[in-house]
Fold each of these.
Amino acid sequence: MLRTLFTSTPVRSIDLSLNSVHRLFLVGLLGSGIQLGAYANTSDGFATFDANFLPAGMGEQIDVTQFSHRHSIPPGYYDVGILLNEKNIGHMRLLVRKIEGKSVICTTRPLMNLIPLRAEEIDSNKWQQLDDADQCYGLEHWIPDASAHINTSTLHMVISVPQALLERQAQNEVSPLLWDKGVNALILGYDNNYYQSKQGGSVYRSFYNGDNISLNILGLMFRHRGSLSWDEESGAHYSSLRNYVEYGISPLKSRIIVGDTDTSGNLFDSFSLRGVTLYSDDNMLPDSRRGYAPMIRGVAETNARVSIRQNNTLLYETTVSPGPFNIDDLYPTGYGGDLVVTVHESDGRINQFMVPYAAVPQLIRPGITRYSFSAGTLRNMNVSQREKVAQVTVQRGINNLITGYGGILSTPDYHAFMLGGAMGSTWGALALDVTQAQTFTPSRDLTGQSYRATYSKRFNSSNSTVTFAAMRFSSSGYLDLKNAMQVIDHDTRRKADEAEYLFYSPRSRISASLSQGFKDNWGQLYLTAIRQSYWGKGGSNNQLQMGYSNSFRSVSWSFSVNRVNARDGAETQYTLGLSVPLGGGSPQTHLNMNFSHDADGLSSQANLNSSLGAHQQFDYSVGMRHDKKQRTTANAAASLYTPYTSIQGTVEKGRQSHSWSTGLQGSVAILHDGITAGPWHSETMALVDAPYATGAHVEGHSGLTLNHQGRALVPYLMPYRLNDIRLDPQELPLDVELKSTQQQIVPHSGALVKVNFSTSRGRPVLIHTTLPDGQSLPFGASVLDEEGTNLGLVAQGDIIYVRLPAGDSRLRVTSGDEEICMLKVHLSPLVDAQNGFERFEQPCLPTSTL
């Protein structure tokens, strides 16, 4: 009968609530643990149980055939995560059918697209069958030696495919097929604040609102950034800061922006322009392909295990086949430290070699190309005219040793060319480049060069890192873009009797830093020194900073000295910071103290910070501040996060002054099916939609709960990465149940991804029932509603647990292909859903009597 159901009527979604999954799991355990005579065929996981071994009468009550096939589950639709060889590759809704007594997961084209099969393993003619909705084949039909089953205790589809059939992928690489461009939406982000202060007899009032408006349509993202400011003296003023549209180009791992933007500053100094920018987006690369790490090459003589360590810490381990191997997906580890590669052959032999690893910002991985192209007009240069500008930059990882890079920056009156290279070796990482610049003004032409060197080395023996960077300008004729635009602007507007524009362009800049970690929890020491000189100005500006930090148990402290020496004098500042947790509960309360001393005297501040609420939705801070003029003020601040907005407030009181402020922060998303507000705003967000699940907490976000619509805006998602969205159902009313509490999404940068959580609404009901003659129902029999949806199972003691809506419900009890009986249940709509389970005791009657 079950098979007939799936061939003649539509397949309904099965209730995969936590309770129903738990019941399935219990039945599976019980079925596997029943002491029966069993005849097993291990090749296909089939076993035959002899019901005659059961106590007298129980053989007729339990349908033992449901335990015959391994991984047997009720048919229906399942929302599951996908695990490929124990690696999470996505989330999908899949159909399970009962075919010849076996549970078959119907393979779809989207599922096959998630599996990175080698090109030669794809039979395009055979795969055409994937588009036939009437067909249902298991994964093994498409991929030889593959297997798959659904683990109902974790809601995962567990797939096993021989590694030889798969394309090699970088660590934690997420298929672009999973990247979600989100829904069409208008998103309004806001951050406003009203401030008022009083000192003596004067009162100052001001208001500020920063707005962040986004319109997402089919992956196109229109952006507006602006601010409104007001005070009693100047009145109101609105500033439009930036307007642009952007789009992610997945095949190129690139992004295009049309409108107002800033260049990256990777090679030339960053500047603002209005125009078009196309650049490679490193965010689209997996973490194991970003930054710099060397490529590991070697040769294995057998099926070998390769491990890579740095400072005796295991970074990477994999197995390789006999022959040459290549590992290019190590995670970057800061400034580096030589890598020790060990090849463990299957016959017990061990080969070991070292790979140098030192990094500077200019180094990128072998085979990676980073580029950018920008063209438009300059913005925010504080000049009378907007010059046209174009810039092209390219970086290419040539091999483990060398990265080459260069660029061109040009306007009608200014041209700059850069060429350089970076090298990584056993003695450290070094980058060298030269920039040639020409500036043309109505009264003069300036030409000069800039030479730059950057060096970094980590010494493993002493656990120290040295970074040295030097930039020297060989002639006074070298100008960067900003200084060049100011000189051109002045000389263009200068009258004949006016002097030429005086400017002080950088002549040389030298900086060095040392970081030293001490063993046995003796803390961390750092030292930074900077020396800068200018053309046309004598002397130099020097800065020296030294600091030490450590902790004892849960108490941490830091001490730093900062000395600045310029032409107009020298200043030294000493700073001490201390953080002490008060109590060991959660959330913790911290006492933070800071002391600062310089030539003007001593200042100090102490603050007590904590949070309140079941989900830490209320933050507060109280403190005292004593400044260098011997003035003492008391202050307090608080933030409240509601499902719709966040509210902030501050107050400060001194002897002769006091001030206070209040403000709102959050965002509003407008979709075709409604409006949702939230207390946070970020570039990339998710819209959770779980009908009736008001009050469920979104884990990982303080105070973020689903609103009266069952919706919430979840901020701070990582683009192009797997993001877990988890709901805590503890505060749900008893008449609402989440069918799953976790989903994974992979958003495009800037997208608003809608995440739908299925819920069932109905009151929990326990029914004790028997057949009219008092006989027990078959243990494990299925309980269906009138539409054929599986609601639950018959448990021990003739107990049925189901969720039912108010009013009349008819339940069918089936065992195997046989329909046993029906139940009619009536629930009053007046019962409070929080009162707990409702209990009924009534017989299960033959179908013909109802």
Amino acid sequence: MIALAATIALVAAPHPGLFFDATEVPQLRAAAASTHKELATHFTTVMGPHLSDLAPTQSDYGAGGQRVFGNDITAWAFAYQMTGDPAYAAQAWVRLSTYLSWPDWGFGFEPGPTPDLFTAHMVLGVACAYDWLYEWMTPDQRTQVATRLGAEGQKIADYYPNSWWLGEYLSNHNWIDTAALGLAGFALQGEDTRAASWVSLAEADLQNIEVALGPISDGSWHEGLAYQQYGMSMALPFWMASRRAGLDHTDIGLLRGVGKMFLAATLPDATRQQILVHGDNIGWPREGTLQILRYAASRFHDGVAQAAANRWLAAGPRSSGFIPDLFYDTFEFIGYDPSVAAVDPHTLPLDTQLSDLQASVMHSTWDPGDLVLAFKAGPYGGRANFDRYKAGGMPAEHFTWGHDHNDDMSFWLYGSGVWLAPEAAGYDAGRRPSPVPAGSVFANETQYHNGLLIDGNGELGDVRDSDSEYANPWFFNRDATLLPSASTADYAVTGGRGTNLYDSSLGLTRWDRVLVLARKRYTLVHDDIAATVPHDYDWLCHFSDGAAPDGTGWIQGTTKKAALTLGVRIVSPAQWTAATGFQSENNTNLFEADGSIAFVKVRPLAPSTSQQFLAALVPMPSASFGTSSRVQIDPLDVLDTGGGAVVAPGSALEERWIFSRPAADGKAAGDLTLTSSLLGMAGYNAGLPARAFLAGAGKISDQLGNRELLSSTTARSIEADLQGTKLVVTGDGIADFRAYAPGATTVTLNGTTVAWSSEGSVVVFPAAGAPPPPPPPPPPPPPPDGGTDAGTADAGTPPDAGTGTPDAGTATGVADAGTPDGPTVSTSSVGRSGSTGMGCSQAGPAMPALFLLLLAAFARKRKAQRPEG
């Protein structure tokens, strides 16, 4: 770092030079007329009407909006470089000269000598403007800008040793404030004697950020996707400039994995929304997402990141013309490499397991009409940093988790273009003022998510006076683990273990949750709970517009489509009460336009030491709910209602599910017997075995264990589907299997025809007498894969009308009546659910290729500046 600082102190930077130099500008403008034309046109369309604007006032962007003046000037200065039109430079100076006249770049939001995000945005923007307007400005104008930029940069440097965010390498305040300091140093290198020390401080901090962000191999962010977009998009300019200067800290898991994560989280029906709604809600990610994805695609030649960006962009216009949003478009332009081909999502697995967030995302299809389920089970802060910090962390490091919610062991469900089981999304994760104002709600609490309450208590962290790990002695004990996922053509399974999420005084000894997605049709949620003393347990689920138990074991969840209902069949317990109502928090309106979300709490009739919940969530036409055409779903065993469920008994799509426990030897319920596997399914067509599924190696049999339906000693997941005389086997890790398939003449394994033999009506693979093939190698870390590519589901039995036709109402539906004074309580006592028939719901380089050749020479020149050690 000393060598770099000395060079910066002696050698003045060329202008422009932060991201490209004067020799590269012709290429930049050529790209604006060709590969980047869509972006360039967006700039001129948005900015053209403002070329004659008067000087800005501090109220132009509303109360608190002063932060984005720095974004604004960045866009104007870049537009000048992109077009060469001095009219853009002239308007940029109108704005920039006004900013120089404002005495406080904290705008009253940063009392005393405590520069933070307001100042940082301004410093970032003015540093870019100084670099890009330099040759247009007069010497006196350059001096004015450099003087103010130097003063503000030094203010951050002076505060740095005592800053509250010092050592918080998971905090966007740390990323953005140090990025501003470092970018100011690069802009003024060789011109301001203090610049070298600023770069040294920022680079040293960035090295520690790299330690923290490097292990996040799945590209996820524990605070939520919108927070991820904000922090990364504002810090990325300095990270890019630093790499250009010869100090590269961008090869981190957070960037390498962001494309896969974001594509998996994207909803095919609403590609600017994501199924993962964890953490504080500040709205959906916007243009900053493209900036990050384009850079990741270019930096790592990542076609998945390029595909994720294309999906977001294909949804419609970039923005409504808000000039500060062009900041993100500026760095998208610089980072975009069109030579990186986008991957076709249809070639990717339908299911993704995110190892750091500890979440699973399971799709039915990559196309509109998707039924997608997501689940999360982990600690605060993400797995890698939680474990690293628990082991000691870096010197003087502080762990940042204040925006995390108690959404562990919670799920989200979306299908046919609407939210089916969302959460009550909100903002302000739980730190209580003293005294707490009357009527306060805290969005982090378990009750606002699809989880579990024990005697009315939520997970640890529901109530906290501080988001410091030191002030919460339970912090490192609060943890959940994600179970291995299982994926086949027609089914996906995920789950977690959440015992340690609750206060030890409750005596909880087990909470295992397992979820099944029957692609395009329904979801099962199974909870297995045990404690040392009896408790009341509340099973939570949320809906967009209402929840109404009907007294037959079903709950009708109202969606934003009048023609579509989420039917929830509570299979276990057999008798229960339900409390319903609405919830509303800060920023709920950013998720749901009417600002409220409905909920149901299902509670068994009496406290107990052990309890199993089993619920089937079935999208269906609203007209079918409560009629004979509604799918019938019954317990597999009336004496063990939590042991399994029978979906559509007697139909061509009958499916009998049986649930065991992680690492258990087996389970028997009804006429099914399960050995070793976590769960299994036996499917029938008019009473005859037709399909079977196992999550994990093991065996499933019917006829009280006397008839083997499917077994494997190696499979991580396996499905066997008898289609006429063809046995179609899909799954992951399959080196052997036995499947009941009378009349089979052909067998395929993940699309490839294989040799087999038979023992009566049982197909045996590999063929008898042949040595078993070696098991496939495990997926290369990081991140662990989501299972074998599910591809396109077999045609099977055609699904019925499913979701029905959406109503003609508005996209957000009719606003509900708001939050009632208290919950509505109803009681259900149900054995069998009386109707038949299954209602299937349908549900790289230092710069992009643009600048590569010229940059090579520049990079060689800067190489000498790399510090020793």
Amino acid sequence: MNIKRVFAGGMAALAAGATIFAAGAMATSDNLGDYVVTSDGSLSSPMVVIGNPSALGSGYPMDVVGAADIAAAVAGYATTPVAAGGGTGGSITGGVMIDTAGTKFYYGDTLGKSGTKTTLTKTDLSTMLASGTVTDDVGTTYNYDEYITIGANAYPSYSTSGGDLNDPVLHLNLSSTTTSAVLNFTVTLNKPMNISHSDVDGNAITLFGTSYTISPDSDYNTTKKLVLFGSSNQQILNAGESKEITVEGTTYTVELVGTSSATVAVIKVGTDQAQVTKGTTKKVGGLDVYVDDVFHISTTDLAANSAKLSFGSAKLTFEDGSNVKRGSSDDTVEGTLVFLSGTQRDGTITKLVVSVTASSSSADHILTGESFTDPVFGAKLAFGGVSSGDSETITVDNSGSTGADIKFTDYRGNEKSVIFSYTGTGSFAPDTNASSTNAHVVDENATIKRNDYIWMADSQQSDFGHVMRITSSGSLGTTSATIDLQDVWSGSTTKISLSDAGYGSTNFFIDGQEYFIRNVTSADHTYQITGGTGAGLGSVGNKAIVWPLVRTSQGGWVTVAKFNTTVATGAGNTTIELPTGDLVLNNSYVYQAQLYAAGVLSNNTIGDGKVVGQNVSVTVGRVTYVVQYYNVSNLTTVSLATAASAQTAVNRPAYLFIEENAKDTSSPEADIKDAVYSWVEDGSGSGVDTTIQQPVVTAAVNSGYVSWTSDNSVSTNIDRRGTIVKHDTDGQGLNEIAYNDEQSIALIGVGSNPVVTAGGSGGTVDQAIKITSSIAKLASEVNTASLRGDLILVGGPCANSLVATLAETEAAIPTCTDWDLETGLIKEVADAFGSGHKALVVAGTTGTNTRWLAGQVMTGVLDYSV
């Protein structure tokens, strides 16, 4: 019999002779959710139907309440799947994750980080860390609790682990110094226990999921040590009996030759034979044998004697201040340190701590998908790699000997590459050009020629950045004046009519953002484009955007940077909107200016109109720029700095990649936006040889560039967000930026057999549907000839006319006159009224019974008859 659910009162009903439907007659649905159908974001099935008030007596209110309960349960199943988007995080089986909902592990963090799990208890690992009790020979009990504390001596690392690996990979680095524990296994007793006393010796204790016996060799009066014998492969052998025992892949033939007393057994393993005293272990024939008990019943009938034995018994010695020792030979367990606390004069202990680290510097890393096994108790620390959402790659490569190009996918999904640095072949003199004639225009309101590449955005770090080209223009100065503005990444073209006075200018909209275009010289077809708050024809408005950013497919931003990009400065303040923030020049001083980076005074005074402009470095956000100021009547230039806080400008075409927010190492963690940038130089060969330089990584926490053994031309660097920057010096250089949608989270778990799985795409989640139309009906309102969904019929055949109709053809449902059930029934009818839809009948003998049965349906009971 296949009973789907045992419900409250069910056993009493069976004892009274109740009938439960047999499997062949049971409902085909598993739960109430099988009746729920949603379509186009609304609930289309089921209808919950009760009888008409005129047909009911005093039980009618209970039917109504029961129907309401079922309708509420139906609403809980009314969901629709919606995309969750790319997500981060992970899942674990066989253990527990040690991060928390509010605090994650990022690159540069160590285990033991504040806000993560630093102490694991039985709430986390119910079996491994279960509380226990030792009962001595006189019945005294000693309760104890177990914990695992996480040391701050392991961390995600991107390296070759000191040369253990050929190429750098992300792994979990472990301490191999015993005083710097990775894991601490702690046992605390609720009262002192005398481990030297004979009443305690020989009794069982379970530590971290493994059973042991306390050895009489334990002592805290002098040697301060606890000795335990394991109980693996435990067997009871009769005298003269032999068995094959397999330990760690090796099979041994073990025989109990006999017993010479109530404390001594004679054991034979292979051809080796030895006497072993009860409560001790001895290596016999290469196998550790522990005698747990000896049953010496007869001195005349030797076959009546027997012994309880354990094999491979793993004697463990915990001596305060020493490594753990294993086996009868007291072999040192590397990477362990014991702390045993108690009162020496009484021989009692109250606490045991076993600290565990990597056994050596060659075994101090956990690769993705692998785990470190504690060598004493067998617990595991697992590293599941990182969860970081979807990823993309930005590639910067040479284009022949004269150019360098950048390739990326924009946030609309369009992939494209463009040359951003070009030099002639005669000498190395690169500019931010795509060719000898087509420039990259990267400063707002600069002069644009046809077919130049225009980097434009209404503001920095927005979703509205584009690379555009004016591919054609004509009829300037006439009513037919137009230009064609092409989006380089998508290839789409917008025709713009220059309809303002003079027919050489207008405002236009891209992505709903307003821009202004003005013809500068008709004959040369040159233009200026401005945008953003306060902008107008030929006016940048409140801010001058320099190096506009274009968003990438996973949310970063890319731009190209021109050496000495010029910005017009007026008599008042000028705000330069850089990729990483605002730089304000206060021009209130004669021949001098004050710099404010993101609102903070950066340099007291810079510039002097009487001499050539001077270089001043200023850091805005996480990027350092070099500003060259002349005076209020001239211009200011901006360049990238060659390194953080450097006053040397990058005097070559460069690219700049800006990351989205990532958590830094401050407490509390703050959001930062780091960057990666590089530029071109001339190679070491003869002639022009454009070469891509190793990128600058601005993150304060990064691995530094680590060389590969498999390809010594390659080095890589990872930053705190998880961005991996690759530089290859082969040929003329290559840069690749592997960027993730989300900051990479290191996935770390602890348990008996933890398997950590990284999250990637978010998949789908079930979203509740708002029910806006009635799902409750009276029986008289239902047309059974045109059903469009399933029915839940509340009330019996005397109260609900639809149930009465079904009772005429369904033998399992009594008619009103034949009703003989004590409580009632729950019955599914597969093809109700020949409609092809199901009907679930919930019918009680009384209204109170019906309400109770409705409650059973809510819990999942779909078959019942009592």
